[in-house]
Amino acid sequence: MFDIDEELKKLPTCPGVYMHKDRLGTVIYVGKAVNLRNRVRQYFRNSSQHSPKVRSMVSNIAEFDYITCGTEMEALILECNLIKKYMPKYNILLKDDKGYPYLRVDLAEDYPTMQMVSRITGDKASYFGPFGGRFVTLGSDAHTAYAIAANFGAAEELAAMAGLQIVTFAARRMKLCQK
Fold this sequence. Notes:
6 helices
């Protein structure tokens, strides 16, 4: 038998994804955490401060599983994939067919093109990503995308598409700012 109090004590303090399950073993919620122990424990403390939806979900939790990840970004991507796989009752976001964006570079055309796409297709283009949101976000992901773009001489074009501007660009280092 699954003892929630005992299992909470065993949770690690690293980033990861947790899955709450009902008494039938069906995944009813998937979430991510920077610190699994702190995040999962929050569900089982002081339910008066939870929303009605969370109280309802917690009353249906019979057990939970977790998967540790190396980084927050890995947890974010894994969470997205698990939500799409299990379609949990209490997850209202990320159930659609949209995913995290990829940078698609097609060198086969007369004029190579770059575009942000939602999924990888079976064409001969090169894909980079996934990146951490529906649009390229500021941070390490954006810098990766622009470094790739710079190799093709298209950093300014990609910045404009993302609504950003390149403030400095020298010796493989960039500083990005929102317009």
